[in-house]
Design goal:
Layout (H helix, E strand, L loop, with lengths): L1 E7 L7 E7 L6 E11 L1 H8 L8 E2 L4 E8 L11 E4 L9 H4 L24 E3 L2 E5 L9 E5 L3 E3 L6 H4 L5 H12 L7 E5 L5 H10 L4 E5 L3 H9 L4 E3 L2 H11 L5 E6 L6 H8 L2 E9 L17 H4 L3 E4 L7 H13 L9 E5 L4 H9 L5 E5 L3
Parallel strand pairs: 4-8, 11-12, 11-14, 12-13, 14-15, 15-16, 17-18
Antiparallel strand pairs: 1-2, 1-4, 2-7, 3-5, 3-9, 3-18, 5-6, 6-10, 7-8
The structure holds nicotinamide-adenine-dinucleotide and zinc ion (ZN) (2 copies).
Nicotinamide-adenine-dinucleotide (NAD) binds next to helix 1.
Length: about 375
């Protein structure tokens, strides 16, 4: 079939709307009509460079939609099902899935190219095969996905905000709860309060933190972080480090989640200065390629204060456990989901949407394929 989608033809290019061909689903594959897609800063990283991947590529990795057709052998979903199109697949049987770390599923090996685990390229552009970002390609109206990349939703779940379950909400929430291991009474610093960081704030609150210090240079985002439970909000990590020490009789933060748009060595070092004894620095933010993210901690601090540095992919969440659980928390009024979506955009407004994100005017922009 033919569909419309936004592709990047090369590093640094803007999105271009094109007509794409999408094939019928083969074994283990699912044809999804995308309804919504979140605008994540990782899409901007892809626009700047695609290491291990290739251009052209169909953008978008935070999607929700409806299953139109399934290929032979597909058992997880059926036509008509509502799904989240997760940016990480979960096969269920690899070493990582089997040990409760499905965010590290072996099928994730090809998310940079977008080629499906079956070897299929989901799209063709002028006859040439191409992939979708993270094997999702949510900026296309229709996309071919692996069965491992979709999570079935209960039919009453609102599809628009459900798109954020594909990336930003679990990524932020889990960065504080799982990767950071926040415990009751802790002091948590969240550096960067966009779509990912504000969910780290929500996670820290749920885990029982006494103090949640939100850090962002943008006033709108600091205010938003307060509205979802941050107890303090400051403009930079220097102020956060001082405040964390003041609030803890000199110790500092127990957990620091780094969720800025693009990290580098300076940002990482500044975040590390918030750490107290026995604290964990969670690296959730990605760097633009070419940036150094060396965690340079002064002297023997890492050793004598037993600091931990913990990477976090998808907030160390297990999609099939955590997406339904987070949706239930939202339904119970315990997790803010609706207000995370600041503005809605059509496919031809994508560039504007990312400009608004860069200008600090949105928490999450949402691409609306069809309401
Ligand atoms: N590890 C993962 O699984 C994963 C998943 C999704 C996104 N990410 C990454 O998480 C990061 C955040 O994504 P997002 O969509 O929320 O981005 P965003 O652009 O919406 O938000 C980033 C925020 O950081 C703030 N900021 C920038 N520099 C800062 C600094 N020095 N100190 C404090 N705040 C600063 C910005 O004002 C903005 O509010 C990105 O790097 C993204 O690629 C990682
Ligand atoms: Zn993302
Ligand atoms: Zn797996």
């Amino acid at each position: 079939m033919e569909t419309t989608g936004a592709v990047l033809r090369g590093a640094g290019d803007q999105y271009e709307l094109v007509t794409l061909e999408v094939g019928d689903p083969g074994p283990g594959e699912v044809l999804v009509e995308m309804a919504y897609a979140g605008l994540c800063h990782s899409d901007e990283h892809l626009r700047h460079s695609n290491p291990g991947g290739r251009y052209p590529v169909v953008g978008g990795h935070e999607g929700s939609g409806v299953v139109l057709a399934v290929g032979p052998g597909v058992r997880r979903v059926a036509p008509g099902d509502h799904v989240v199109a997760s940016f990480l697949p979960a096969c269920g049987v690899c070493r990582w899935c089997a040990s409760g770390r499905s965010n590290l599923c072996d099928l994730g090996a090809t998310i940079a190219t977008g080629q499906l685990p079956t070897g299929t390229w989901p799209f063709r552009l002028d006859g040439e095969p191409l992939g979708g970002f993270c094997m999702v390609g949510a900026f296309a109206r229709h996309s071919l996905l692996s069965e491992a990349s979709v999570i079935r939703l209960d039919p009453w779940v609102a599809l628009d905000t459900a798109a954020l379950m594909a990336c930003s909400v679990p990524t932020g929430w889990g960065s504080a709860v799982y990767a950071g291991g926040t415990r009751p009474g802790d002091t948590v610093v969240v550096v960067g309060c966009g779509g990912v960081g504000v969910n780290a704030v929500q996670g820290a609150v749920h885990a029982g933190a006494s103090h949640v210090i939100a850090v962002d240079p943008v006033a709108f985002r600091r205010d938003f972080a307060r509205s979802v439970g941050a107890t303090h909000a400051v403009e930079d990590t220097g102020a956060a480090a001082a405040l964390a020490r003041e609030l803890t009789r000199g110790n500092g933060a127990d957990v620091v989640v780094l969720a800025v748009g693009a990290t580098d060595a300076d940002t990482t070092r500044a975040a590390a200065r918030c750490l107290g004894k026995g604290a964990t620095l969670v690296l959730t933010a990605l760097a633009d390629i070419g940036s150094d993210v060396t965690v340079a901690l002064q002297g023997n601090g890492l050793t004598v204060f037993e600091h931990r540095v913990q990477g976090a992919l998808f907030g160390s969440c297990n999609a099939h456990r955590d997406v339904p659980m987070l949706l239930r928390l939202a339904a119970e009024g315990k997790l803010e989901l609706d207000r995370l979506v600041t503005r809605r955009y059509s496919l031809d407004q994508l560039t504007q949407g990312f400009a608004d994100q860069a200008a600090g005017e949105t928490i999450r922009g949402l691409l609306v394929h069809a309401d």
